[in-house]
Structures are given as structure tokens and as C-alpha cells.
Design a protein that fits this description.
Strand content of chain A: under 5%
Oligomer: heterodimer
Number of domains of chain A: 2
Distance between the termini of chain B: 42 Å
Low-confidence stretches of chain A: none
Number of strands of chain A: 0
CATH architecture of the largest domain in chain A: Orthogonal Bundle
Structural class of chain A: mainly alpha
Radius of gyration of chain A: 24 Å
CATH topology of the largest domain in chain A: MetI-like fold
Order of helices and strands of chain B: HEEHHHHHHHHHHHH
CATH superfamily of one domain in chain B: MetI-like
Mean pLDDT of chain B: 91
Low-confidence stretches of chain B: none
């Protein structure tokens, strides 16, 4: 493709096309940023003008109305717990399914398939059952009501990536470790986990993004405002700020900007993680 | 590895995953199906209701409306995301300055929380205070101003635009990965044989990324059936359920109306439609590749 598309005119047209596409994609985000500095009357009376001053007033009002800091802490806690637990237990089960010996090898194969069924199941059919389960187990309206379903929804994806990874890993290292008298926990954490680091990073980033942004489950399993995650809190902006559009926009920017910064730092891992999930899933 | 595979070890390794997964995913699907055969409003015990909920699904006007809306989003997204995604990926392949920055920026909407995506687009599409109508008015194009969202016609088309905005960078990245797997020698030998740029595109590039097209279309199909948050934010399905998509309609019947039995029948039917579409698509593409 490189040499013959090389005519200068064509290249210029393509470059311009690309610049336009990029600009159009960014307009909604830039627009939000502008609006967050405007007053409510400016938003209504002169919608297209630039903000008259870059004051942070909307932001401080947004922080007073809702406890956004608290929502950050809640989301981080739920993400840390669910991603951490899902990572450890799916690592263990995938290792057992790919490397250990079952009495009945057919059971082993069947369980591998069983773990992948979740990839086909839409989360929306699970909402009401998960609500019923959390009521029945008395954890409704606690963080665990969210953490356990979040763990469950990560397991199939993790299993797919881990089992595929173990399949391609030569057994010699493990055999050598065994001869040196290595036991099972040592095998997992000292020998396999370091080798699996790239997959682990992919799994963690993919899942953190999922949990951080998840809304449908949070909307039915959490009722107390002090337990709200960011998505849940954001869904309440319209009600909480009522006609204060500038406040809604400022509160939204307070959620977008940290996400974009995170993305800026981990861009390669995020893109790899999301595409790995697509290509392998 | 045999030595470590004592029964106790296997048990410890497998149990946490198996229990959580079996309860919250597998059993949950059966719980949903069970409720779809009952009448249940949250009080007392669910009453067995046979297939009545399912009969009602097919007579429910709003089910057909939300099915139609979902398919509008699906068709528009499929056409634009596959074609534009593929073309943009090809532009990205020609090396130039600023490519990486463009790629990063175009991808960025995919990581923004979907609830916030709804808020962002509310301030663009809202007929009263949205950017779009304000721009049209200032250009003197009052006739073009529309009730982009919350009316009776345009909402599903707007969902499609938002979905495309959010997924374009992601889909493009997948196409770029597919294009990079084509070995360079293929193009070199085609060039020696005198193939033009278009010929190479049609006879080499497109056939060689066919697998990627399959993946992309499957991703779009499953992705469209997960569109939820920005529908809730933008229209909440209104007015009078006319802007619902399948998942928001079953959510609203279940959790807003408290008709759990009927809601689960809707959720089950939606789930079957998704499964059917993706398996059907998988089969047809696999057949073609097998025949080749």
C-alpha cells in the first residue's frame, strides 16, 4: 500500500480526511469542556459563544451538590475487590483446567466449554435473577451485591484468555520446578504468574474498564446514595442538579477527564486489552 | 503435573470459580426462564402462567416498536462501522505524522462511561439547548432544525450515530490489526504483476481481511444489543415507549412497572434473538469459508 498511493495529491486528501474525522470525533468532548465554564444563563441565551470567563464556579457547585469524591472511592473499592478476586480465582481454575490431571478427562474438557458459555450470555437477562439472588442471600444494597455479580461476569473472559495462554506455554519450566520440589501455590505464584504477566495486565485493564463503567447492575443492586458508584451517581445528575445544566456538565467533566488521563497513560494496554478481547472472544 | 493433582488440590483450585459462575451466570439464566413462565409482581409467590407471557410479547405493540428501533440501529451501525471502519483503517496504514495521535483520539470515546456518553450527546441533540439546533439556527437553516431526540421518529437514528461515534476508533483498530497481518510480499508481487491500487484492494486486501470483517460484524451485532445507558439518559424510551430498544423496554417493564414475569419473558426473547443472529451469522460465514 505504501508506494503507489504515494501521489502527493492523494496523500494530501487522505491527510485532510483523517484530520476532519479526528476533529468531528472530538467536537462533543470539547463542547462539554467549553460548556462547563459557562454560566447557566450563557448556556441558554448565547449557546454558541465562548465562555465569558474561565471560572471554576460550576465545578465547586458540582462538588457541593453531590459527593463525587465518595463515588470515586466506592467505584475504586468495588473495582479493586471484584477485579482482584476474579483474577485470582480464574487464574487458579484455568490453571487446573489446562494443566492438572482430572480423573475423568471428559469432565475436564466439558468444564472448559462450560466456562466459556458466559461469553454468549447477555448481561440483561441476568439483571433480575442477580437481584433475586442478592435479596435471598441478604447482601442486597451492600457492596457485595455488586462485587459478586461483577466477579461472575468477568470469569468467562478471563478463562478464555488464561486457558489460551496456558495452552501455548511449554511444560518444561513447570517440570523443572517440580523436580526442584515446588508445591502447588509456589508453582502458581512464583513460576506461572510471572510468565503470565502480559495476559494478567490485559485481563486487569479490560476488567477495570468494565467495572468502572458498568451501569445496569449498579442501578438495581444499590439503592443507598452513600454506596453509589460513578455510573450510578452520573445517572442521577439530571435529578440532583435539576435545571443546573452547567452543574451537570461540570460533574460529567469531573468523570471524563480522569478517564482520559488514565487512557493517556495506559493507552497501549487498553487498546491491546480491548482488541484482544474482541479477536479472541 | 500429575503429582500436584490430588483431589483436594483440584477442589481448591476449581471451587471458587465454579460456585460463583454457576450461581450468578448459569443458574441465573434458568431463574430468568423460570420467572418468564410465571406471573409475579414482587408480592406473594410467583404464579405459574404457562406461555401466556410469551403470547403477550407477540401481541405487545411496544415490543414490535422496540424491535424495529433496535434493527434500525443495527442496520445503520453495521453499514457505517464496517465500511467506514475499513476505509479509515486503510488511511491509517499510510504512514504520516500525527497518525498515532489521531488513532488515540478517535479511539477515546470507547473508554468513556456510557452514562456520561448519554449526557454528552444530550447537550448536542437536545432540541431546546443542544449544539446541533443552535448551529443550524445561527446558519439560518431553521428548516433543518429537528426534534433529534425525544420525538417519535428520529431517536433510534441518533442512537446509531452515538454508537458509531463511540465504536469507530475501536472497530478501526481491529481492522488495522487485520490489515497488518497481510504479508507485504503479497503486495510486492502484485505490484510486479502490474496490479493497480484498486485491483489490489479488491483482489488482495478485502479477501485477506475477510476474517476481520466477520469479527467486526459480530462485535457490532452483540454491541447493538447492549445499547442501554445512553437510551436511558437521552429519552428513557419515551415518549410513551416509542424510543425504546429491546433491552431498555424489558428493563422498564421489569423494574419500573414491576411486572417481573412479563419482563423476564421479554428479556428471554431478546436474548434468543441475539443468540439467533450471532449463530446464524457465524454459520453463514463459516459455510462460505468452508466452500472456498
Amino acid at each position: 500500500m505504501t508506494s503507489s498511493v504515494g501521489s502527493k495529491g492523494v496523500r494530501l486528501v487522505l491527510s485532510i480526511t483523517l484530520a476532519v474525522i479526528t476533529a468531528v470525533t472530538m467536537i462533543p468532548l470539547i463542547w462539554m469542556l467549553f460548556m462547563s465554564f459557562k454560566t447557566n444563563s450563557e448556556i441558554y441565551s448565547t449557546p454558541l459563544s465562548l465562555p465569558s470567563s474561565f471560572s471554576l464556579e460550576n465545578y465547586s457547585r458540582a462538588m457541593e451538590t453531590l459527593n463525587i469524591g465518595r463515588m470515586y472511592v466506592n467505584t475504586a473499592y468495588v473495582a479493586l475487590m471484584s477485579v482482584g478476586i476474579a483474577l485470582v480465582i480464574s487464574f487458579m481454575s484455568s490453571y487446573a483446567l489446562s494443566r492438572m490431571t482430572f480423573r475423568n478427562p471428559n469432565l475436564q474438557k466439558a468444564l472448559k466449554q462450560y466456562m466459556l458459555l458466559g461469553l454468549m450470555i447477555s448481561p440483561f437477562i441476568l439483571l433480575f435473577p442477580m437481584y433475586r439472588i442478592s435479596v435471598a442471600t441478604n447482601i442486597y444494597n451492600t457492596f457485595w451485591a455488586l462485587i459478586l455479580p461483577y466477579i461472575a461476569t468477568q470469569l468467562s473472559f478471563n478463562s478464555l484468555l488464561f486457558v489460551n495462554f496456558f495452552k501455548g506455554l511449554p511444560v518444561e519450566v513447570e517440570e523443572a520446578a517440580l523436580i526442584d520440589g515446588c508445591n502447588l501455590p509456589q508453582m502458581c505464584w512464583r513460576v506461572i504468574a510471572p510468565m503470565a504477566m502480559p495476559v494478567i495486565i490485559t485481563v486487569v485493564i479490560f476488567n477495570i474498564l468494565y467495572v468502572w463503567n458498568e451501569y445496569p447492575l449498579a442501578s438495581i443492586l444499590i439503592r443507598k446514595p452513600e454506596l453509589y458508584t460513578l455510573s450510578m451517581g452520573a445517572s442521577m445528575f439530571k435529578g440532583a442538579y435539576s435545571v443546573d445544566n452547567a452543574g451537570i456538565v461540570a460533574a460529567s467533566v469531573l468523570i471524563i477527564v480522569p478517564q482520559l488521563v488514565f487512557y493517556g497513560f495506559f493507552q497501549r494496554y487498553i487498546v491491546d486489552g480491548m482488541t484482544a478481547g474482541a479477536v479472541k472472544g | 503435573m500429575h503429582w500436584l493433582s490430588k483431589k483436594k488440590n483440584l477442589f481448591i483450585m476449581m471451587m471458587p470459580t465454579l460456585i460463583i459462575y454457576s450461581v450468578y451466570i448459569i443458574a441465573a439464566v434458568f431463574i430468568a426462564i423460570y420467572y418468564s413462565f410465571t406471573k409475579y409482581s414482587g408480592i406473594g409467590k410467583p404464579m405459574f402462567y404457562g406461555f401466556k407471557n410469551y403470547m403477550r410479547v407477540f401481541e405487545d405493540r411496544f415490543f414490535w416498536v422496540s424491535l424495529k428501533n433496535t434493527f434500525i440501529v443495527l442496520v445503520i451501525s453495521l453499514v457505517f462501522l464496517t465500511i467506514l471502519g475499513f476505509l479509515i483503517a486503510n488511511i491509517f496504514r499510510v504512514k504520516r505524522r500525527g497518525n498515532n495521535l489521531s488513532k488515540a483520539l478517535v479511539f477515546s470515546p470507547a473508554i468513556i462511561s456510557p452514562i456520561i456518553v448519554g449526557i454528552i450527546w444530550l447537550y448536542i441533540l437536545d432540541p431546546e439547548i443542544g449544539l446541533l439546533n443552535a448551529v443550524l439556527q445561527s446558519l439560518g437553516l431553521e428548516d433543518w432544525m429537528q426534534i433529534w431526540i425525544g420525538g417519535t421518529v428520529l431517536s433510534p437514528y441518533m442512537y446509531a450515530i452515538i454508537f458509531i461515534w463511540r465504536q469507530m476508533g475501536y472497530i478501526t483498530t481491529i481492522f488495522v490489526a487485520g490489515l497488518n497481518m497481510i504479508p507485504g510480499e503479497v503486495y510486492e508481487s502484485a505490484e510486479i504483476d502490474g496490479a493497480s491500487g484498486w485491483q489490489r484492494m479488491i483482489y488482495i486486501t478485502i479477501p485477506m481481511v475477510r476474517g476481520t470483517f466477520t469479527i467486526v460484524m459480530l462485535l457490532v451485532i452483540t454491541g447493538v444489543f447492549k445499547i442501554f445507558e445512553f437510551v436511558v439518559q437521552l429519552t428513557n424510551g419515551g415518549p410513551n415507549h416509542l424510543s425504546e430498544v429491546l433491552v431498555t423496554y424489558s428493563y422498564s417493564v421489569t423494574f419500573m412497572n414491576g411486572e417481573y414475569g412479563y419482563g423476564m419473558a421479554l428479556a428471554t426473547v431478546t436474548f434468543i434473538i441475539t443468540l439467533f443472529l450471532s449463530t446464524l451469522y457465524n454459520f453463514t460465514t463459516r459455510d462460505k469459508e468452508g466452500a472456498k
